[in-house]
Amino acid sequence: MAESDAGAGAAEPGIAAGNAAVHERFPFDDAQDFEDAGRGFVGTSRDGAVRDGDGSSVWDFETYDFLRRECPATANPSLWRQSRLAARHGLYEVTGGIYQIRGFDLSNMTLVEGDTGVFVIDPLISTETAAAGLALYRRHRGERPVTGVLYTHSHVDHFGGVRGVIGQEDVDGGTPVIAPEGFLEHAVSENVYAGTAMARRSAYMYGAALPTGERGQIGAGLGQTTSTGTVGLIPPTLDVTRTGQSETVDGIRMVFHLTPGTEAPAELNIHFPDHSALCTAENATHNLHNLLTLRGAQVRNPHVWAHYLTEAIELFAGDVDVVFASHHWPTWGRGRVLAFLSEQRDLYAYLHDQTLRMLNQGLTPLEIAETIQVPPGLERAWHTHGYYGSISHNTKAIYQHYLGWFDGNPAHLWEHPPVEAALRYVEFMGGADAVLRRARASYAAGDFRWVVQVVNHVLFADPHNDAARTLQADALEQLGYGSENGTWRNFYLTGALELREGTVGTPTVTASPDVLRALPLDRLFDSLAVRVDGPRSWHADLAIRFRVRDADPVTLRLRNGVLIHTTAAAPDGREPDTEIALTESDLRAVLLGSAGLADLAARGRAEISGEPGRLTELFGYLGEPDTDFAIVTP
């Protein structure tokens, strides 16, 4: 959204003072990052935005121009500094023959020049932004054909724009698409089970519905925000299966370093020996990364992450003059490269080891998050700051990884759910008016953390209490203004926005037709199973067998509110109620709701025997995900 401060208030004195103190604490006169972020600049887009086929903007180059101003009291100066750096956009030369498109999306697209063309690494989120980046490169470097594509890992901001740089016809003609082993499974399945909830929470995390501006969205730390164009996926044609594997494409030599279980379940680093360059994908960037992203995901293990950074140092640091990643800007010089990789490694190792030390002393997740301190030698390095991940939520994630959700206190074993607890809290505290009166005093004293914690009970006891909504929104806003972490700021400010104006829904969706086509059939069946309304189907008992050409028959069985799929015969001898023969593509279309079974049968594309209504009955037990579920209210 365009810059606007509508509905937003000024920073309260305590927040303004806290932000001013940040200037005194950190070396803002250190201009090295600004020199690095500007180094090698070639040129940028002549247009103010990247647009889709309908003329709608999917990426705006001008929306963050306000960051050129001095940091206001409504923003943490450290985050403002990071956003100024990340908002720079254009084509940049990394080293001879290696270029990057930066600021065209959340991520970077890297282009490596070969003997006859250019090799593309991580083609952004959207077809439109990747195509615009490639066009900018060609405007300055000539009409070089794309001779290969590489995905460093399985997150959408590193593959979604692939159809903006190559098409399926290029792949059919021999253009390689390289990825780490396991890429496709993780890329297409990450959002299958909890995709709706993750997408809804992503709206909070990236502030997609917030206005940009001094009192709104100013960035996400890792990049500014996500583009909103067309997401695609072309499956890899060549897997990287081991560290040390070497491939040459168009004369470009690459040596791979597999790093599974770091920032993504399938990820790799790339050494370019002829360029003395190392691409660290998203394993070493200019911020502390997430061990558990706020949108939701499986916990990432910092012990494994630190191990692979150590391995990267041992394998490549002696032959690297520049290290670059798929976010942010490069670091040049062997000494600085070694320091950067070592400090990133030490950061993840320190969080892991110190969290384990404290949990073994009996501290709870909240206590660890409030107690842990980063060594001064690490804190002085800007790239260790929690602009995307945070010390607070990362240490809680480590606790969760080892011990789960329960802190060991039996008082927390069987707590009331939010609404029931809120009703009791408010009654115990003398009623909503008494709570709000005291909360306003806490607000005036600058204790905004306590305000949002206690007023949350009032809201969950009575979500229509306008005074509570207003006070909660104001307090969340102040917490956002003081946050160094971009995603925390976005969460706080989006919560405030929804309390004032209603839910913003899920502005961006990544489950594109390409992604769904690449989903294995068993995962597609699983996606139906997690939609079954258990109580409504407790007494249902039905079996449907699908016969697909060149594949074993698959039987779906719904019983006890559970949908399973199997290629084996039923142990209880139960024969299917219905058998349906059709192609895999038609089966996918039926399961995804884009084709009707009766219509396919009428056109001779499906054969049905037994009870034809059983599939309709099964679909009747499926619930629809809610893309607009409440977060800050019950």
Structure characterization notes:
The protein has 634 residues and is an alpha+beta fold. Helices cover 38% and strands 15% of the residues. The protein has an 8-stranded mixed beta sheet with strand order 1-4-5-6-7-8-9-10, covered by helices on one side. A 6-stranded mixed beta sheet has the order 11-12-13-14-15-16. Strands 19-18-17-20-21 form a 5-stranded mixed beta sheet. Strand 7, helix 4 (127-141) and strand 8 (146-150) form a beta-alpha-beta unit. The chain starts with 12 loop residues before the first helix and ends in a 14-residue tail after the last helix.
Features:
15% strand, eight-stranded mixed beta sheet, alpha+beta, 634 residues, six-stranded mixed beta sheet
SSE arrangement:
Layout: H1 13-25, H2 32-38, E1 41-43, E2 49-51, E3 57-60, H3 77-86, E4 90-95, E5 98-102, E6 109-113, E7 118-121, H4 127-141, E8 146-150, H5 168-172, E9 177-180, H6 183-189, H7 195-205, E10 238-240, E11 246-249, E12 252-258, E13 268-272, E14 277-279, H8 302-316, E15 322-324, E16 331-332, H9 334-359, H10 365-371, H11 376-379, H12 391-403, H13 418-428, H14 432-444, H15 448-461, H16 466-482, H17 486-501, H18 513-518, H19 521-529, E17 541-548, E18 554-559, E19 562-566, E20 578-582, H20 584-592, H21 597-602, E21 607-610, H22 613-620
Parallel strand pairs: 7-8, 8-9, 9-10, 14-15, 17-20
Antiparallel strand pairs: 1-4, 2-3, 4-5, 5-6, 6-7, 11-12, 12-13, 13-14, 15-16, 17-18, 18-19, 20-21
Secondary-structure class = alpha+beta
Look at the structure and give the mean pLDDT: 96
H/I helix tally: 22
Estimate the global geometry from the Cα principal axes. Answer: globular
Low-confidence stretches: none
Largest sheet: 8 strands, mixed
Strand order of the largest sheet: 1-4-5-6-7-8-9-10
Could you estimate the helical fraction of the residues in percent?
25-40%
| DSSP, total strands | 21
How many whole angstroms does the radius of gyration measure?
A: 26 Å
Distance, first to last CA? 27 Å
- In terms of DSSP E residues, the strand content is 5-15%
